[in-house]
Amino acid sequence: MIKSVASEAVMRRICISLKSSQFSTASQVQPNAKPPSFRTSENDPQKHTTAHIGQFYQIPTKERKIFLYGGLPKSYEIQTKTFNETCIMIRKPSIDIINCLKSLDYSKPAVRFVLFGKKGNGKSLSLAHVLHYGYKSGCLLVHVPWVGNWMRRCKETSNSEAKEGHIDLNLDAAAWLVHFKSQNEHLLNNPELKISKDHVWSKRENTPKGAPLTELIDFGINRIKYASSCVVSLAEEIKQLTTGGHCKTLVAIDGFNAFFYPNTRVFTEKKQIVHPHKVTLTEAFLNLTKFDWNNSAILLTQLLKKIRRLIYLDIFWDEMDLNI
Amino acid sequence: MLNISRNIDKFLFRILEKQLVLTYATAPNIEKEEEFRVLNLKHVKGQVTVRRPAKKAEVLPPRSMQMAVDQDWGNVWPGPRTFHPATVPLPVRQGYSEKGVSPSKYGNAELMKIPNFLHLTPPVIKRQCEALKKFCTTWPKSLDTDEKCEKHFPVEVWSSTYCHSSPTIRDPLSRIVTVKFKLKALQLNARAKDKFLRLVGERYDENTDTVTIVTDRCPLKKQNYDYAMYLITALYHESLNVEPWEELKSEADMEQYIWENNASKANIEKIFGKEAKEIPQIQIYSEAVDKYMNEGESEYTINNYGEAVRRILNIPLTPL
Fold this sequence. Notes:
By secondary structure, chain A is an alpha/beta fold. Chain A has one domain (91-322): 3-Layer(aba) Sandwich (Rossmann fold). In chain A, 35% of the residues lie in helices and 12% in strands. Chain A is globular, with a radius of gyration of 23 Å. Chain B contains ten helices and four strands, in the order H-H-H-H-H-E-E-H-E-E-H-H-H-H. In chain B, strand 3 and strand 4 (210-215) form a beta hairpin. Among the domains of chain B are: 74-136, no CATH class; 146-161 and 173-248, Double Stranded RNA Binding Domain (2-Layer Sandwich), CATH 3.30.160; 252-313.
């Protein structure tokens, strides 16, 4: 009895699918067929509204390059290769943030948003969605793909010259500068972006005041020895430029609480654990997440796994928390 | 040596002889026409002696079969006793077997291990209460609500007595005394209450507002009771006393989060550039932060905080 009912249902389903002429195994949608209800053809995040929630939109291949050096979770990258397209689901929290970003008063101090939730809930991908929105709306993107990479799988450590007792993660810093450059290529050509003060790296090397920002970045990429301090100076410069109104900035940091968790896998030469506050890179990004500058927005994600959510009383906690 | 072996041989031979004779003697009576009888050496040990069949002890039916339905159970089971299956007329089953039904009461070690209260059935209890009634006084009529009891008798003293029928009638556990009282009965001010709670530590239950003091360090019950009373007095007076070093209490020692003294207030003032009191909607925000810090992180406190921040920073509220 039960078997026959099940087979009937299967038959019915096959008939319906044949009628609507949509074969699930087809790789191309037929030209006259209606697009499936879970997709939307609106690929511009600036135009996404609450009506689009729950639907997938495709990131065009040209804009895919912002994630070239990181930003999407590894397992997701494999799937984009399998399906030959990068589709992100439009979700309520990201629509919420995009809405807020649209209606934010940029003359006030920077607002900070935090995305948090359990493992696998979609924090990194929501961040990617908002990043795409930032890219489309012409913001300068300061994107840290995954802080855990720096704190737990750092490529190379060295003692900092500029600061006593601090550790530099130079290769990681240089890699990040490359990432920053590739994300913001179209904006860095802007001649208005100039450095506001002299940066002296050593006796013979310095980046003078008034040089374009690209020079600072290139210096960091070429001279790996000074890459970390370059990142710190870059953060300062970005703040200055943004406050001055030359560009809008979106700071997006994935896994922000890795900057606070004391058990890193960064070791000194004597095999002692280095607290994140002793890493020069931390200082750069903590600086960027303060609220003493305007014309920008900051979006942070919480890193889970063995790191528990930390509540830091003496540092800022005026962030907005969004539930996923 | 040889003698012995010869003797043994003779002995064995004699036994064999006897057995052979017996075989012939006890062989079944065949027709006497046959001249020769068949020699049967195989069944040598045959019917030597017929063993007496073992007497099976007569098993009487279990006593529970002969119990009347309206019997007085209190007489059958007068005191605490390990479970005895034949005496208990109930078809009790206890235990687990993978395939099949739970084991029955006969030969069930589990039933014997667990405590049973067959000696305290309701009619028995009633009888005991009736017997004790003549030693009791009536409950005062005016103490009809819990609040009145707490008001007039705030302190509860709990202790157990034990009586053994062994060479010593005493039990060392009877020295334990538990004293319970509600903290609000002490009427301490906020600072004193905080000090009291730090002194008392784990002995305070937040949900019922009760302080429980268990004493057992003295050998006698009376001594433990006096010690408990002394502890309460000492705690009360100590918490009312203000020591000079208590003024050094800093933000890190605070047991509660107070928004006024914390970084959150300083930060919001920096953001707005104004005094905290002048910022609109600040009340909602400070309460939200207080709740979040004091009550811990829950969906309600986080959402509350989010809404408060949205209001204060003029950000659109969460879409539904």
